[in-house]
């Protein structure tokens, strides 16, 4: 089974989602009022996943630090608005939450997709975790995808790394962009 994965440095796909408060937003585009010029897009499994709830609540602890670094946050799942409303009772986050991620959008993001194990789990296919950091040029600067809820970036390391990347003195390029098999070493 072939699955498309987004390439580091590539243009982030133009995908529009709906936030809980009804706004149509484009993933990868920071909110105008955030003061940020990068955006972290966190794809999570949905309300049925207690590990997602914990991860999103932990991410909230880094929201201000990320904004100071110039990185806005949005989280999105394939849940319905009703499922998100129920999930919000367990979430204590100040960043936008979006719902209704479609199969086509999950495919465009290259995330792994799972079928529900039972109607009690959920009533739709859902994305496994993905984290995408999109830079001011609309390109994918950092990408992490997983096929299960147990593997995700450790948040303090991620925030420290983004601070390092965003520091102009470090001149740190997008990593993982080598696409050919040339054996010549080129330092960047």
UniProtKB/TrEMBL annotation:
<dbReference type="InterPro" id="IPR036249">
    <property type="entry name" value="Thioredoxin-like_sf"/>
</dbReference>
<feature type="domain" description="Thioredoxin">
    <location>
        <begin position="6"/>
        <end position="164"/>
    </location>
</feature>
<dbReference type="Pfam" id="PF00578">
    <property type="entry name" value="AhpC-TSA"/>
</dbReference>
<dbReference type="InterPro" id="IPR013766">
    <property type="entry name" value="Thioredoxin_domain"/>
</dbReference>
<dbReference type="InterPro" id="IPR000866">
    <property type="entry name" value="AhpC/TSA"/>
</dbReference>
<keyword id="KW-0560">Oxidoreductase</keyword>
<dbReference type="GO" id="GO:0004601">
    <property type="term" value="F:peroxidase activity"/>
</dbReference>
<keyword id="KW-0575">Peroxidase</keyword>
<protein>
    <submittedName>
        <fullName>Thioredoxin peroxidase</fullName>
    </submittedName>
</protein>
């Amino acid at each position: 089974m072939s699955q498309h994965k987004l390439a580091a440095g590539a243009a982030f796909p133009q995908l529009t989602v709906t936030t809980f408060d009804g706004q149509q937003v484009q993933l990868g585009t920071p909110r105008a009022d955030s003061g940020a010029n990068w955006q972290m897009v966190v794809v999570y499994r949905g309300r049925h996943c207690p590990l997602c709830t914990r991860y999103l609540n932990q991410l909230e602890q880094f929201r201000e630090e990320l904004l100071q670094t110039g990185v806005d946050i949005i989280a999105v799942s394939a849940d319905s608005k009703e499922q998100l409303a129920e999930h919000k009772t367990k979430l204590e986050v100040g960043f936008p939450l979006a719902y209704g991620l479609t199969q086509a959008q999950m495919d465009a993001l290259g995330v792994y997709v799972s079928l529900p194990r039972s109607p009690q789990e959920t009533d739709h296919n859902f994305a496994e975790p993905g984290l995408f950091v999109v830079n001011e040029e609309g390109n994918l600067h950092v990408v992490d995808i997983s096929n299960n809820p147990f593997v995700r970036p450790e948040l303090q390391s991620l925030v420290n790394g983004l601070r390092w990347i965003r520091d102009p003195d470090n001149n740190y390029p997008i990593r993982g962009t080598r696409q050919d098999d040339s054996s010549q070493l080129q330092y960047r």
